[in-house]
Amino acid sequence: MAQTIMPKIDFDAYERNLRKKSESYWQARGRRRAFSLFKKAAELVPAYRDFLKKHRVQPHHIKTADDFSRIPQTNKENYIQAYPLQKRCWNGALPSSGIIAASSGTSGTPNFWIRGSGQEEEAAFLHQFIYRYLCGAEESTLVIIAFPLGVYVSGVATLLPTWTIAEQSRITIVSTGTNKADILLALRTYASSYKTIIMAGHPYFIKDVLETSVVEGNIPPLRRIALLLASEGFSEKWRSYVKKILAPHSEDIRVISMYGSSEFLIMAHETEDSIRVKQKLEEDTREYSVFQYHQVLRYFEAADGELLCTANGATPLVHHAIHDAGNILPLTEAIAILDGAVPRWKLPFLLLKGRSDQTLVFYAANIYPEHVRQALDHPPFHAKITGKFTLQKRQLSSLNQRFEVVVECRPRVALSLALKNTIVKRIFSYLLQANKEYLYISQHLTTDVRPHVLLKAYQDPEYFKPGIKPRYIRHS
Q: What is the DSSP letter of 152?
């Protein structure tokens, strides 16, 4: 197969402009591009044309980019699941070529996405920027892709853009997926032959790989190693821990997180400045993932504590609610947090708190309360539990994650180990059947991903206080 070569871009000129041009300049460019996409989608995408009609929006009344906030929000419920894939494509036709990927839905049935060449070019652009300016890939580089492969988004969405830019960026790829033995073999066999090693994967899986590599002695001396992580957040304590693992093997260690989704691929990424903002916020006990983003490719807005994104693609999305809780941090506020230090790039910051749609992310798998509810709605349990529960994720002293289900028992029911173990078995078995992402991590991770059940007495004052609507997700 012939390699697709991305058109050469003067990245140095672009990076200089990120330093020179103002934040308002980039915001204006992004807003104009988003407005133009809205106009084209309203005309050429059948599903979006019908969506606007149902919301009584006449596109010609939206006359300027400043009117953009008046456009109704799309989301998975009112748009993605309401219209067939073909109708959400340009001209109501699937592209003649592209990539189809899947993400798990709340019912356990995957949502399918198709990406065309334009979206792949944008992904290649963002990867080349990240590799060059954040990972230090300016010389011979080995990229180990340890994201899940197959129909899942992250692995293929890293492999394709990396392959596209490989020749002009002097990159060699080892696409291991989540096969730990292959990752360790690649480190042991090839790593010392390259100036820069980039390991791309889910953070807690990469942590497990690094810990195993230390035990088995697989990491040779390295000039530079970068961990490129995505799909879930982590604390600065966690970042320091993985750097400590690598410290005996390299003096140049970089740990960079990306923010992405099935719909938009890479949306934002950490920078040295966003990491410093995150560190400052954590000192004030404010837990956020912090990123910077390129408005000309991904136009973000914030409404009622939730992020909206507009971006082009084979299935363009306009004013789309991603169901991520967060906000936009203007450059001026970031400078104040950094005690007057001006960030290198005049790009705005994203503050990401977590999912806003009753979803718990555990080892990059989306855990849905509906699945747990269905598992607990089991006749043998009816006399013992009320049916109320809360999902939460706890970081252990080992800096691994634990998925916990807090269950309310009925009055005068003993909080027995036997009942707890029965509930664990039932939830675990049900999730393996209903949730493809959870099935995947259970098959590919050596870490114990079974739910840890906590039984609580009836009307427990911390979790199930009477008169208060129970929360399905409890954030730490």
A: B
